[in-house]
Amino acid sequence: MHRNFDWGGAETKGSLPRPNRHLTALAQDVARLARPLLPAGSNLILGLEATADGQIHLLWWRQRDFKRIAAISATPDAFCAEDSDEGALQEAAAALLDYLAGRWPSPPEALGVVTDGTGVAFAPDHPAPSAEGWLMRHASGEGSLAMILDLDPMGPCGLLAGGNVAGTFH
């Protein structure tokens, strides 16, 4: 299924004409590496965001009130140790977000995804998860998400996945 959505001002399809195995593999790495940082029963949402200044931000929010409870921000030369859960995720997030930015007609100042450790999604029309009201916008159905990997509808991102979905993007 293809759905049109506005992606940074350019009309684009919700999913690529053929599967993008590389993007899917990068998203699978991100989801897998995020799991240890999302303890079972914690009901946390994890955002991964790249900004124009070269930083990668790991952002945790509580599902119940969308309050940001933790963040790690660093440029690649200051990432956590590669053998740590955080460092491994920073490396994987940098690779995914760099690849995703390359698919944008003109990359935005901040571009990110959210994950629940199962799926990975982004919002083409509002690409920075750290933006004020981003989570509420998507939980209310006002915004649309593009799924690289489907979020768990029963997990902490279920509210986000239950709204408008722009399509599967892989």
How would you describe what is shown here?
- The chain is α+β, with helices and mostly antiparallel strands.
- The chain has 4 helices and 9 strands; from the N terminus they run ββαβββαββαβαβ.
- The strands form 2 sheets. The chain has a 7-stranded mixed sheet. Strands 1-2 form a two-stranded antiparallel ribbon.
- A hairpin with a 5-residue loop joins strand 4 and strand 5.
- Helix 1 packs antiparallel against helix 2 (about 85-100).
- It is globular and about 35 Å long.
- The model is unreliable at about 1-15 and about 165-170 (pLDDT under 50).
Concise summary:
With about 170 residues, the protein is α+β, with helices and mostly antiparallel strands. It has helices at about 20-35, 85-100, 135-140, 160, and strands spanning about 5, 10-15, 45-50, 55-60, 70-75, 110-115, 120, 145-150, 165-170. It has a 7-stranded mixed beta sheet. Strands 1-2 form a two-stranded antiparallel sheet.
Keywords:
single chain, 170 residues, alpha+beta, two-stranded antiparallel sheet, 9 strands, 24% helix, globular, disordered N terminus, disordered C terminus
